[in-house]
Give the backbone structure.
Amino acid sequence: MTGPAPVTVLMNAGPWLSVPPPGYGGIENVVATLVPELRRLGVRVVLASVGSSTLDVDERLSVFADGQFSALQRPYNQVCGIAQAHLGGVVRALRERDDIDLVHDHVEAVGLATLTAMGPGAPPVLHTLHWDLGKHPDLYGQLDGGERVRVNGVSAAQLARAPAALRAHSVGHVHLATPLAVDADRRPAAEPGEHVLVLGRINPGKGQDVAARLARRAGFPLVLAGPVGPYHRPEELAAAGDQARQNPDVRFWYEQVAPHVDGVQVRWVGTVAGADRDDLVASARATLFPLRWEEPGGTAVVESLALGTPVVATARGCLPELITHGRTGLLTEDEDELADLLFAATLIDRDECRREAVLRFTPEAMARRYVELYERVRQQSGPVLEAA
């Protein structure tokens, strides 16, 4: 006898970056981490992304040949159709075929709205919320996905701040994972250096200006790694000229961060990927997260733990869920205390950080949790009509 047919999931990663991304790319990195483990667990994956994606999947669906991330610096009325065009391709595919058991959507706002609007005849949907849930009150506050559309968060803290209508559609949260956590406790620990690292997109919520001021005041070397708006390298931003300041992250960089960057004590190295990024994290005294916002997921946090580097952060968003104060990092609600904690972080056992990552943040753990949610969403959903 043959067993049941494998579940087929349309994984909607969106039109902004390839999967995996060439460097920075939060959601795309999550998808790139999740999909191989899902396939190992027997799930068929149809990836809806851009044509330049290289992730091994069962099928691909794309509207754009390459990522549209650079368009995000343009005014809204010039860029708003990109996500809709991508979703149009997804909707056409769902209408033309009858083998999609579930859509796992990662496209902010428009993905949820479009897939909800398809109505009861469409496949069930699990929409993962990767962002600040205060951003779209009109959408989230009135959401009615019936029995077919469900959402999940990437932390309990994120869902706790969700509007009531959105929470009513929730099936729980799934913490993010990193491939670096696989056998992290068996790898030799890197020898820590003196530098402190802030890893992530440079914007007010991430607080790179706070980190730079602390470094200059307290005298520790600081490395800032991540893009400024669509610009991944310092030379790219320098060549862009004054028009680049239309992007709010670029304005933040020039007005609040760049004045503190001297290339010696405070350095911006742009986007760092692969082994270079891992080496930069593993050799840091600590990773610093001087957050001004309620961080929903914290991919860079779990990567830091997997590489044995303790985390120092403001205790906002998901950070208290991911970090055990005094064991894998140090948390505070006082921004001015962060500098003292960075010096104290040398007392954290780096092997303990890696052991925690192995226990909690492996791709397999994330994938198994999503398989549970897929089954729950499918069971709760009403019957799916035949495709036209």
Remarks:
- Residues 363-380 form the longest helix (18 residues).
- The chain is about 35% helix and 15% strand.
